[in-house]
Amino acid sequence: MRDAAFVATMVLLLPLAVARPFVGVLLLTWLLLMGPERLVYGPAASMPWLLMVFATTLFGCLLAGEPRRLPLNATTLLILALMGLFTVTALVAPSNPAASLAKWEGIETTLVALLLTAAMLTDRRRLHALVWVMVIAIGYYGVRSGVLSAVSGGAYRQWAPEGLPIAERGPLATAAVVALPLMNYLRLQSRNAVARVGLVGAMGLCLLAVLGSGSRGALLALAAACVAYGWTGGRRVLPAGLTAAAVAVALILSPLPLPLAGGEGASLDLAAATPSAAERLATWENALRLALVHPFSGAGFAGLSDGAVVEMVSPGSPGRAAGSIWFEVLGETGFLALAAWAALTLTGLVQARRLAALPEEWAELAWARDLGRMAIVSIVAYLVGGSFFSLAYWHLPWALVVALASATAILRRSEAMGRAEPGAWFPHAIGGLPKEAAVPELLPDVSGIARSAAAR
After folding, report:
1. In a domain? residue 418
2. Distance CA 245, CA 436 (A)
3. Is 364 a member of any domain?
4. How many alpha carbons fall within 13 Å on the CB side of residue 219?
5. The pLDDT of residue 299 is above 70
6. 381 located within any domain
7. Tens digits of per-residue pLDDT, 218-269?
8. What percentage of the chain has pLDDT greater than the value 90?
9. Strand partners, 72
10. What separation in angstroms does the CA of 272 have from each of 81, 256, 266, 267, 351?
11. 313 in a domain, yes or no?
12. How far apart are CA 74 and CA 160, in angstroms?
């Protein structure tokens, strides 16, 4: 039944992606974040859905003549730089070529999808739709985990489909924390009372999933998110944010064996986690050593988990997953790629801060101000929680940075920008970044040709 429902949904949406290419962008985001094809069985599970969506979306772009240009800004330039640096890593790094190229292909697919998203994200409605898809994709797993954790009394072992970066309970709980502020953004912007109530319920269940995960990394992300929320909300919200953060930290430090996540990780006792912490620190040290030996290419996308590669810098050490976004990028791709990766995230934070600082009296810009505030909370949660999990190439934070760059561009073109007086605060805040450039036209204007052929 689930297989038939998924196939029917794709059969209906693929033609729509030809007629409306932005639908294809939303489909790409859904597939990359949620991986719904991994939840089905039989022939539907083995079909190249991502390739099919790419093909239909590009065909739709060709017919519609959209997008005409790729915006050149700090975000898109850094994405292009990462594409080049990651390609160098895949070609020259010492890790297993087949495994490295397979991971490179998935990352490059994500980056190409981001460029297409940046080119198509031209107005507020599209941006809002993208955030909805991001929330639905992650919220599905967060809500399901929250419900089953409540029903089972915490014995349910949270999971997402194998092959997704958030497949394990720790990364999944961290993803739920990252999605919580975006749910709140949609709640603030939704006019439909049912949607607002549903989002509040989803937020509560995602929070329950985080608490029921037993993941210290996710709880640290939650504590950091509470502090960031209090900071961005001003004096009225800061005490509540600090109080919630203190509760999360207290849970982390609690020596009491809490019945969380059923058996594995059922206690938050830090002393019991010492061997795991020691292994993680050893892996981080190996990642640094590999980066020092291969500063420009790193050890390759499969280098840290390849025992033969790790043996070169640390004899007797087994290969393991990095367990940190920072050391994952450093060990696998080197210092230059780490700098570009960090710069992309920093660019998102700067843009989010500028949006969050928009004056309160500009009521028509409340959506941008709320987006900036909630994006700061999401990015902070990702940076803190991701420091303990291998989520460096996860699509959601990159898509959020692209959305922030697009929001800034949308504001520059808005009527409010046109009404701003010279020297007013708004132009300085949003116009502080250089105006977008544009590359030459991406696609020939064949829309007229297509309409003429249809008329015949």
Report:
1. no
2. 38
3. no
4. 18
5. yes
6. no
7. 989 998 998 898 888 755 555 555 566 566 665 555 544 444 444 444 444 4
8. 54
9. 437
10. 42, 11, 11, 8, 41
11. no
12. 33
| Per-residue confidence (pLDDT) for residue 236, from 0 to 100 | 57
Write out the residue range of the structural domain in which residue 449 sits.
Answer: 1-68+442-456
Confidence of residue 163 (pLDDT cuts 50, 70, 90): confident
> By C-alpha distance, which of 5, 13, 46 is closest to 30?
13
Q: Which residues touch 287 (CB under 8 Å, ≥6 apart)?
A: 299, 304, 322, 327, 328, 330, 331, 332
**426 or 352: which carries more pLDDT confidence?**
352
Angle between helices 193-213 and 216-233 (to 10 degrees): 140
Instruction: Provide CB contacts within 8 A for 390, sequence distance 6+.
Output: 165, 171, 321, 322, 323, 324, 325, 328
Quote the pLDDT of residue 183: 96
pLDDT of 438 over the 50 cut:
no
- Of 326, 317, 345, which Cα lies nearest the Cα of 402? 345
Burial of 332 (0-12, 13-18, 19+ CB in 10 A): buried
pLDDT digits (tens, 9 = 90+) for 345-383: 999 999 999 999 998 888 888 999 999 999 999 999 999
Q: What whole-number distance in Å separates Cα of residue 202 and Cα of residue 309? A: 44
What pLDDT does 259 receive?
45
Q: How would residue 2 be classed by pLDDT, with cut points 50, 70 and 90?
A: confident
> Is 60 exceeded by the pLDDT of residue 14?
yes
The total number of structural domains that make up the chain: 1
414: left (phi over 0), alpha (psi -120 to 50) or beta: beta
